[in-house]
TrEMBL record:
UniProt-listed PANTHER family: METHIONYL-TRNA FORMYLTRANSFERASE, METHIONYL-TRNA FORMYLTRANSFERASE, MITOCHONDRIAL
Any Pfam family hit: Formyl_trans_C
Alphabetized InterPro entries for the sequence: Formyl_trans_C, Formyl_transf_N, Formyl_transf_N_sf, Formyl_transferase-like_C_sf
Domain Formyl transferase C-terminal: 205-306
Gene3D superfamilies: 3.40.50.12230
Superkingdom of this protein's organism: Bacteria
Name under which the protein is recorded: Methionyl-tRNA formyltransferase
Species, as recorded: Streptomyces nigra
Domain Formyl transferase N-terminal: 1-169
Amino acid sequence: MRVVMFGYQTWGHRTLRALLDSEHDVVLVVTHPKSEHAYEKIWDDSVADLAEEHGVPVLIRDRPDDDDLLARLKEADPDIIVANNWRTWIPPRVFGLPRHGTLNVHDSLLPKYAGFSPLIWALINGESEVGVTAHLMDEELDAGDIVRQEAVPVGPRDTATDLFHRTVDLIAPVTLGALDLIASGRTRFTPQDRSRASFFHKRSVEDSRMDWTWPAEDLERLVRAQSEPYPSAFTFHRGRRLEVLSAVVSEGRYGGTPGRVFYREGDGVVIVAGADARRGRNHGLAITRVRTEDGRELPATEYFTSMGGYLTATP
């Protein structure tokens, strides 16, 4: 099939690579300009560079809604558009233009985790699996019929980086498998159960701020979700920003006020956690490694030279 590809960052790069290595003919690529957004500088393999290396025409757009783009799409005469990690709304006159419409490839198990940063949100929320979905685009974001979907398990110590590598390897089989089904003439696919749908916003550095009223289990997953190369989870100690690089849920249960620097346990220092911590039924978060405001990384047992005081959400 003649394919136009809309994509950005490593997700788009992997999609384009799969298409270029397939029997399909990539006739045009549309991608975003480079961004200085903290999250968009991560996994930033260039879609434009890959396309140009293979002699495929490239258009750079923030939004795909101008008449010139529409004219170029009509000239390209695609059988289908394939999109992955396109960051802005694609209007019906674009996604409905090809003979077979537009196939969107999304890194979640739709209908859950539509929108942005699905792997990070899924890890924070304790999901047992994540994956990649190829669906036909309609007017509602990430809501069209599912053509193909594959899942991978989430391990108890996985980071968001681990899940990125595991799911990005699914892009080629999911995308090409979906295109094979469409090329075979199949037109009916699996509608999404909208009663199970959830939609998440883009993450920002603010979303890495630790809230000590969260249960320790949630905070531990937040630390793993915000591991390198993502902006680290952070808190404040004695008015200074402190990044939490690694942590585990405590073995013991600790009561008191959320955020209290309380007790050395194993290789960590336990912080009281949970909105109902006063009842003494909660595990704490045992921080094991931190980074200070001046960039020093050290074990938490060396940083916290004495117990007492509080970690807080603001200085």
